[in-house]
Amino acid sequence: MTGLGVDSAPLKAAIFKYTYLWFRDGVEFWAYISFIGGGHTAGWRWDGYNWHPFEVDIRKIDKFIYYQ
C-alpha cells in the first residue's frame, strides 16, 4: 500500500466482508463494505455500539484487512 491510497482491485476482495480500515489521517475502524466503484467505497461503519452508513474516497485508505 502506498501513500497514494489503496488500489480498488485488491479492495474488491473485501466486498461483503468485515474489514478493518486504516486511513492516511490516522482514523481507523471496522466496516462492512457493500459497494466499490468510481474511486469510492461505501457500506457500514462500526462505532463500537452501532453500524452507520459511510462512503469514502479510496485514496484516503492507507491499508486494510478483511475476514471471511
Explained architecture:
The protein has a single domain (8-67), classed as SH3 type barrels (Roll), CATH 2.30.30.100. The chain is 6% helix and 54% strand. The chain contains 1 helix and 5 strands, in the order H-E-E-E-E-E. It has one helix at 8-11, and strands at 18-23, 28-37, 40-46, 51-57, 61-67. The chain has a 5-stranded antiparallel β-sheet, with no helix packed on it. The longest helix is centred in the N-terminal third of the chain and has 4 residues, at 8-11.
Task: Give structural attributes.
68 residues, mainly beta, SH3 type barrels, 5-stranded antiparallel β-sheet, 1 helix, 6% helix
Give a quick precis of the structure:
The chain is mainly beta and 68 residues long. Helices cover 6% and strands 54% of the residues.
Question: How much helix is in the residues?
Answer: under 10%
- Main sheet properties: 5 strands, antiparallel
CATH topology: SH3 type barrels
Strand tally? 5
Could you state the order of secondary-structure elements as H and E? HEEEEE
Sequence-ordered SSE layout with sheet pairings:
Elements: H1 8-11, E1 18-23, E2 28-37, E3 40-46, E4 51-57, E5 61-67
Antiparallel strand pairs: 1-2, 1-5, 2-3, 3-4
